[in-house]
Design goal:
It is a single chain. The chain is built from twelve helices and 15 strands. By secondary structure, it is an alpha/beta fold. It has a single domain, classed as Rossmann fold, CATH 3.40.50.720. Strand 2, helix 2 and strand 3 form a beta-alpha-beta unit. Bound molecules: uridine-diphosphate-N-acetylglucosamine (UD1). Uridine-diphosphate-N-acetylglucosamine (UD1) binds next to strand 8, helix 8 and strand 9.
Length: 347
Amino acid sequence: MSTKQKHILVTGGAGFIGSHTVVELIEAGYTPVIIDDFRNSERFIPERLEKLTNQKIIAVDAACQDVEVLDSLFSKYNFEGVIHFAADKAVGESVSDPLKYYDNNLSSLISILRMMDKYNTKSLVFSSSCTVYGNPKSTTGKSVVTEDSIHLNPDSPYGNTKLIGEQILQDWIASSSRSNVALLRYFNPIGAHASGEIGELPQGIPNNLLPYITQTAVGIREKLTVFGNDYDTEDGTCIRDYIHVCDLADAHVSAIKWLDLQTNPGIEIFNIGTGKGTSVLEMVQAFEKVIGKPLSWEYGPKRSGDIPEIYANPIKAKEMLQWESKFSIFQAIEDAWRWENNRPKND
Ligand code: UD1
């Protein structure tokens, strides 16, 4: 006897977090439908996903603003829910080309919401970021944030698009929308799938710490610069909440299941982090321990816009979504290292 397929639209499903979420969705019995225009992801990802999951992957090459394509997908699949990842995310580029970010990140969200209204789609998971908290210590005196922590203006147009996206969703839910939203604020995703088939593919010089570390260790980069050593933290380097991308992917499945159980329209915000802060120096040391070799690194000046310390209080996600992180930074580093040694090199 065949059971009804539960289709979930995954925008940006070929990207770093999207591709790992597709794997988790399939493992949980859902049928993901990817829409991705591959502007910031690789065309071989759907094939890799097929190999990894042993299942046919539906992947449509289109932008989220393509209303005709969206309309045909919504009418064909009658989605149970949408997970909206598709967005530009390079902080530096957003400073030099803000209109690209406001245009792409906000218009894609609005197109999705219009379709959800038209087709009465029940559930939406939205990718937000801990960047919306700004520097929590300057407002609350604490580095750990709960979902109701005071917001500062994020430091970049990219961060602003996340905050404005959140506000659009609040207004949309307050209107006559009949949908339900889980708004996930990600902390710092790292790692890769344990199979070594999928992982992060930074274009050009990585901005993020762990890809920079792994690329230095394989010799693509000469030396890691640790940005700043006189922050007001124990070892003087910045502290972040690094979360394994598979844990993060799993949080999306928990959110979809939770949304499915909700009977009234609404919106809930969840921090998706481990609850543990790790300094840049601790990351370097953990990496050296995992690979058993010293890394070439030096201290350099602070990077503008970096905040000293932030990590999640993830208790709400645990209580309401029954989700919590499982992997340590050591496991994430091991997986990122395997991926770095296997991944197709595009630079
Ligand atoms: C960055 C983005 C954030 C985004 C997040 C997702 C900025 C300002 N923020 O966060 O909006 O949601 O990525 O991945 O870019 N570091 C070094 N040397 C390096 C690279 C990084 O010392 O070569 C340090 C940074 O100073 C920081 C830590 O490593 O303290 C983490 O940096 P990164 O991976 O770029 O993440 P965030 O800046 O926290």
